[in-house]
Amino acid sequence: xxxxxxxxxSSTPLYLQIASSIRxxxxxxxxxxxxxxxxxxxxxxxxxxxxxxxxxxVGQLIEEGLLCRKQGSGTFVSERIEMPAxxxxxxxxxxxxxxxxxGSVWLIRSYxxxxxEEAAVLKIPMSSVVARLGRVRLSEGEPLAIEHAVVAxxxxxxxxxxxxxxxxxxxxxxxxxxxxxxxxRASLASPTEAGLLSIQENSAVLRIERVTWLDDGTVIExxxxxxxxxxxxxxxxxx
Length: 239
Prior knowledge:
- The longest helix is centred in the N-terminal third of the chain and has 14 residues, at about 15-25.
- This protein has 2 domains: about 15-75, Arc Repressor Mutant, subunit A (Orthogonal Bundle), CATH 1.10.10.10; about 80-235, Chorismate lyase.
- Strands 4-5-6-9-8-7 form a 6-stranded antiparallel β-sheet. It has a two-stranded antiparallel sheet with strand order 1-2. The chain has a two-stranded parallel sheet with strand order 3-10.
- It is built from 7 helices and 10 strands.
- The protein has about 240 residues and is of the alpha+beta class.
């Protein structure tokens, strides 16, 4: 049974005390990822608070991404997806490997000349043409990441033929990445990103910059992504 002690004499609003107690126990691992929290009725009995207060506390944690409601099942601790930092694969492959259905909402799918930075990274002339592929990445309909990829036009099929998996499209031209390097840093979601990811403005996101290439050194992909910090964590084996 989780400890949800709260004081009605404290200057801190009761709903914030309850939310803080649940948050602490999630962060300390006392309530496991994927575990259901007590029902509203049980939370009322545990805290002596009204249902309105309990609902407000739970709503606060849902907004933070720590909890999620499942229709007809209850409220659960959100599960974080652990991604190996050395994994060279696409969002679609990873989602399917976890038994989840991937999806995309396209933000941009067009041809253009590369910027100076893009041309330098891809090692192509600025007069060449690149495909710009921007989309929100979904898992079971839930927005988890925003991805902006730039690849040389010649590396992929016509952009209207590119589906959920960029790497599958690259593979049809013999250009599936074999090696790569990525940088990961913590950041805060902008108002636009927050809206696209269904999170609060200034929520934590993980910004990933990835460059991939073929075995012969040909650079294939330059991608910048923003992953929800409440749903993803990266792991690295240390030797």
